[in-house]
Each structure stands twice: as C-alpha cells, then as structure tokens.
Amino acid sequence: MSEVSTIGLDIAKHVFHAHGADSAGRAVFSRRLTRGKLLDFFASQPRCTVALEACGGAHHWARELEAMGHAVRLIPPAYVKPFVKRHKNDAVDAEAICEAAQRPTMRFVAVKTEEQQAAALVFRTRDLLVKQRTQLGNAIRGHLAEYGWVAPKGPSHLAMLADLLDDSEMAATLPQAARPMFAMMVDMLAELGTRVAALDKEIARRAREDEVARRLMTIPGIGPITATAIAAIAPPAETFAKGRDFAAWLGLVPKQASTGGKQKLGAISRMGERTLRRLLIIGSSAVVLQASRRGAPKGSWLEGMLARKPRMLVTVALANKTARIVWAVLIKQEDYRAPVAVAA
Predict the structure, then answer these.
(1) What's the pLDDT tens digit per position in 109-156?
(2) Model's pTM, two decimal places?
(3) In angstroms, how far is CA 73 from the centroid of its own chain?
(4) pLDDT tens for residues 115-127?
(5) 15-22 — which CB contacts under 8 Å span 24+ positions?
(6) Is the backbone of residue 267 left (phi > 0), alpha (psi -120 to 50) or beta?
C-alpha cells in the first residue's frame, strides 16, 4: 500500500471526512470521522500535508494538526470548487480538497494564531454593534413615521427624535401601547452607542501601543481603526510578491474579461477581505472629499484624477493606491513619505 503524502479534510461541526493520497495523487483511503476521533486518527498518521478549506473552525483545526507535526494548508473554498466532480457530498469534497492541495500553483491562506484571531475580534464586534445601531435607528425612524414624526437622515437628527420622545407633551400624541416600545428602543440605541464608543477607545489604545499601526497611520486616509485592523487581520506582507497582489487580495483590482489579446476591465472584483476593503474605501472617501472642497496638491496624482474622473471612481482608485502603499510601508518597515508634486 502506498504511503499517504496528502490528506484532504472536509470539516464540519460533528462529522468529518478525510481523503488520503500518495505522492502520485492516487487514492490511499477515504474515511468518515466523528469529531471526537479526529485528532486520534491524525495522531496515528505519518507526518504529511493536510489540506482544509479556509472556513469556520479551519484555523483551530490547523493549529491542532500543526501541533502534531503535520504541514497544514488552508485553501479558499472558491479554489476547491473546480475540483469537485459532479455531485457534492463529504467524500467528494475531501477528494477535491486533496487534489487542489497538490496543484503546484495553488494559493493558500496563512494559518492565524489565537492571538491574531482575538485581535481581529474587536473589529468584528464593533461592526456587529454598528450594524445593530443602524438597524435600530432605522426601526425608530420607520415606526415614528407612521405617527407623523419625521426627521432628516443622520445620528444628530435621530437624537432629536429621542429628545422629543422624552417630552411628555409630545409623547402624549403617541398611542399608550407604543410609548414603552419607543422608550425601549431609544435605551437600546443609547447603550449600543456607549458600547461602540468603548470599542473605539480600545482600538485607539491598541493603535498607540502598536508600532506597525503607528507606522500605517502616517498614510493619508488611514486612522486608528484601519491601521489596527490591517495589523490584526492582514497576513504577513511577505506573503505577497508585490503591492498589486495585496490590492487583489483585498478585492480592489478590476475584474477581467479579456480574450484574444484584447484587454477588457470591469468593476473591482470584491473577492477579497471585505472588512479591510471597506475601511480603505471609507478612508479614501474622506481624502477625496477633502480634496474636492479644499483642492488637491498641485501636480499630484489625485488632482489629475479628480480633473478627469468621477469622484466615486477616484475614491476606489485611491483605495487601490493606498493598499499598495500599505504593502510597501509594511515591507520596508518605514513611515510613509508623501511624494513631492512636480509643477507643470
């Protein structure tokens, strides 16, 4: 029997499936495993390459398998799908993962440590609370509109509605059953705002204490939130050969539909890390807005782009440019130095 060199592992909550192959790609075994027996099974296997899809729980199992001496490779699910033959089940998925891992040009995801995942959790939590705050604010606006209470968009105007609800005379115009519900939603909104503010302070503290974050904040459009998010979520800069690869990982490069030597580019792919991409676009939007109002530096790239392109297109292009600068700053371990504009 051939010795296994690569194992494709399809993970789930309780039932797993392992597909082993030798160095020539021939199947050695295909086995269904329960959660309790998974580690015992891999402890009995010779040290080899174990491949998993980069999905929920993958980093945990990767760390456990690495501790046993196995070489673990995490593969983006989109790169595994082309290797799935016809119908989908656990055995077929495990075989596809094993086959994908043996391709010489396959791209892998860096395994995160527990500390890295914990550092990233603060941003995930903040995003969740901000979404809940927005959802709750929209609910208050929508329900009050049914009683003729309207206000322009924006948190300040939402606070005005909350003040009106505290006014006993104004609140008396609402049905008795509706008043406690509005009071509950307003209290929840205030509590969410307090929690988001606390997380903002925690992020700012981390940015001050982290050398990489301080270096990233020298780049225009990158503040404490974006800087610490990049430091916590992004893989090592050495993972990418050039800045464009990092921008592509973020989904900030255009999609291609080129053929026959004719290049056809579309909108950005949006196939990368959503959190960092959104933060970079928000930061670039602030830079472009300020340049639109006060004017960009004479002879700068931004001035030329604003003169001939729509503002939103310039914003995304600047986010792409910022991503490349981020990669260069991380690779060189230097603060950002703004280029000197050349007068026409």
Answers:
(1) 999 999 889 988 998 999 999 999 999 999 988 888 888 888 777 777
(2) 0.83
(3) 20
(4) 889 988 998 999 9
(5) 15/90, 16/90, 17/90, 17/91, 17/93, 17/94, 18/94, 19/91, 19/94, 19/95, 19/97, 19/98, 20/45, 20/98, 21/98, 21/99, 21/102
(6) beta
